[in-house]
Design a protein that fits this description.
This protein has 423 residues and is of the alpha/beta class. Helix content is 51%, strand content 10%.
């Protein structure tokens, strides 16, 4: 298989026994003994099933059995398992392709447990985390895993915007028909739950949906950008219900994880980058979505323009790529990040206090708002408590001038920008 080395294949692929039934669209995999079966399930099975799907296509079943059951070691039980190998929510979204570090071990382990269990032990299962931390990847991985043992037409997978559109467009504002449609599903996955803030009228309807799925032990999985317990705009009844389940938080991907992601993408795309280039990308782009974009640019350049990517080509492509602010980044969020770093209140940034520490924090917040949002000086003045646009202009120019000669300030600004993008 393309994703494994020859040594890896010799270790786990060669001991397998295969039976292929084309008419029944079924593959049976036999293990040499029970210990191997247990190891295969925990270490290789996700990768194997993804590659099997690539080779055979959708619609196949895979069965696992222990060929060595006659000599089964005491205490090791391996049940015969039959699974689909379809990936209805995208083949790239698996637990195997989710790069894990120590900070995110518990959320991933919890997600795997949700995908395996059938008693809705963690219901709802809520995944919180900043943009680019992998929430969508994880929520779709759970959906793909559940679909292997359940009819995926019974799984609702959509964003908060799509859920609202189902009511307003597909069912033309008829809540009863829309609700009955959703009640036909056995699993409910809602991504970008924070968008509920834009649909306050929809909160009571979500309570109705929640009650049905919870009472009937139907699994709900929800993802949102912030800690859901901090949403003070939620209706009390909805807020309390969200607290009934398990809430986990994904941490932003660190440098090690980003390097690993780039290396994996380079292997898959057969894109040759040296260690310095990989490190440059990992340091500059903190969000996986931007990393995907720049790697796609580099791959397209190699395929369409030159077979060999030179250092000059690499630098030119990077020079014309900028990591943009997320759509929902606001002056208020930037002020919140800056105030937390400097240990001052947001009110101090919008107020009139002139203490040196507060003044520095205020000037940096103004500079970041101008750089990241390109907001006009008068508009920034209004955002910072009605200050004159000349005050904002002075602050932005001052910070810009200082950071060109002050390495520590330059690094601080870079750190704060990354935190703002992840907020």
């Amino acid at each position: 298989m393309q994703s494994s080395t020859n040594d890896e294949l010799a270790r786990w692929f060669d001991p397998l026994h295969f039976e292929y039934e084309e008419e029944n669209k079924r593959v049976t995999v036999g293990f040499p003994h029970a210990f191997f079966a247990k190891w295969f399930e925990s270490e290789i099975q996700d990768k194997f099933e993804a590659q099997l799907n690539l080779f055979l296509g959708n619609g196949y079943l895979v069965s696992y059995r222990d060929n060595g059951s006659a000599n089964r070691p005491t205490g090791v039980q391996v049940a015969d398992v039959v699974k689909r190998i379809d990936f209805p929510f995208g083949q790239e979204f698996t637990f195997d392709t989710f790069l894990i570090n120590k900070k995110n071990y518990f959320p991933i382990a919890s997600a795997k447990e949700v995908a395996k269990q059938s008693g809705s032990l963690f219901n709802p299962f809520i995944i919180c985390g900043p943009g680019g931390s992998g929430k969508t990847h994880l929520i779709k991985s759970v959906g793909n895993e559940i679909s292997k043992k359940n009819d995926y037409s019974k799984i609702f997978m959509g964003t908060m915007d799509e859920l609202n559109s189902l009511y307003t467009i597909q069912f033309k504002g008829d809540p009863f028909r829309a609700r009955n449609h959703l009640f036909e599903y056995d699993f409910m996955f809602i991504d970008d739950f924070q968008k509920i803030r834009e649909y306050p009228h929809f909160q009571q309807e979500l309570v109705n949906i929640f009650n049905h799925f919870y009472d009937n032990k139907k699994q709900m999985v929800i993802s949102c950008r912030d800690k859901v317990t901090s949403y003070d705009f939620l209706d009390d009844s909805l807020q309390s219900r969200l607290g009934w389940g398990l809430i986990v938080t994904l941490k932003e991907p660190d440098l090690e994880i980003r390097v690993g992601y780039i290396q994996r993408q380079c292997r898959m795309k057969r894109l040759t980058l040296n260690k310095e280039q990989i490190l440059t990308l990992a340091q500059r782009f903190s969000d996986f979505r931007f990393l995907q974009g720049i790697l796609l640019k580099l791959f397209a350049f190699k395929e369409l323009v030159k077979k060999e990517l030179t250092q000059k080509d690499f630098e030119h492509i990077l020079a014309n790529t900028e990591e943009k602010a997320t759509d929902d980044l606001t002056p208020k969020k930037i002020m919140s990040v800056v105030s937390e770093h400097f240990n001052v209140h947001v009110k101090d940034l919008t107020g009139s206090k002139r203490h040196q520490h507060i003044a520095k924090a205020r000037q940096i917040a103004m500079y970041l708002c101008r750089q990241m949002l390109n907001t006009s000086y008068p508009a920034l003045g209004r955002a910072f408590g009605g200050k004159d646009h000349s005050t904002v202009l002075y602050s932005v120019k001052k910070v810009d001038g200082l950071q060109s000669d002050d390495y520590e300030l330059k690094q601080l600004l870079k750190t704060l920008k990354n935190k703002c993008r992840m907020s």
